[in-house]
Amino acid sequence: MSRGPGRWQRLILRELERRDVFYLIDLLPQEHTMTDYKALHRAFVRLTDGGKIGYWRFLCGQAKIVVCRPGSAQPDRRKLDKCRQGSIMESYQHITGEAKVIAHD
């Protein structure tokens, strides 16, 4: 029996409360391990399968997953550029307890 959403699922849901749309990969710290990447992706798949989040895939050199609320329309490219400007790391630090400050491009 499940004990509820895990830390990565909580991180995704908490970020979705703050923003309408964001890149999934932005939830990871710059120096992340493959284990972190896989755990985040598993959490994403579980939330998607459960209908708790929506998503879009964009190809710009490398496939990027954009997380959105269920049933949301495809986001405008300009909105996606703006979604990278916020401080996602505040949510990450809250979940993990790490105090790293990571600047996004």
Fill in the keyword field for this structure:
105 residues; alpha+beta; Arc Repressor Mutant, subunit A; 4 helices; globular; disordered C terminus
Describe this structure in words.
The chain is α+β, with helices and mostly antiparallel strands. The protein has a single domain, classed as Orthogonal Bundle (Arc Repressor Mutant, subunit A), CATH 1.10.10. Helix content is 41%, strand content 16%. It has four helices and three strands; from the N terminus they run H-E-H-E-E-H-H. It has helices at residues 7-18, 34-49, 77-83, 89-96; strands at 21-23, 54-60, 62-68. The chain has a three-stranded antiparallel sheet, sandwiched between helices. Strand 2 (54-60) and strand 3 (62-68) form a beta hairpin. Helix 1 (7-18) packs antiparallel against helix 4. The N and C termini lie far apart (41 Å).
Strand and helix map with partners:
Blueprint (H helix, E strand, L loop, with lengths): L6 H12 L2 E3 L10 H16 L4 E7 L1 E7 L8 H7 L5 H8 L9
Antiparallel strand pairs: 1-3, 2-3
Helix pairs in contact: 1-4
Q: How does the major sheet shape up?
A: 3 strands, antiparallel
**CATH topology-level fold name:** Arc Repressor Mutant, subunit A
Number of helix segments?
4
Share of β-strand residues? 15-25%
The N- to C-terminal Cα distance equals 41 Å
Assembly form of the protein:
single chain
Q: Please estimate the helix content.
A: 40-55%
Main structural class: alpha+beta
Q: Regions with pLDDT < 50 over 5+ consecutive residues?
A: 85-105
CATH C-level label: Mainly Alpha
Mean pLDDT: 75
Number of domains: 1
Q: Measured on Cα atoms, how large is the radius of gyration?
A: 13 Å
Widest beta sheet: strand line-up: 1-3-2
Label the CATH architecture.
Orthogonal Bundle
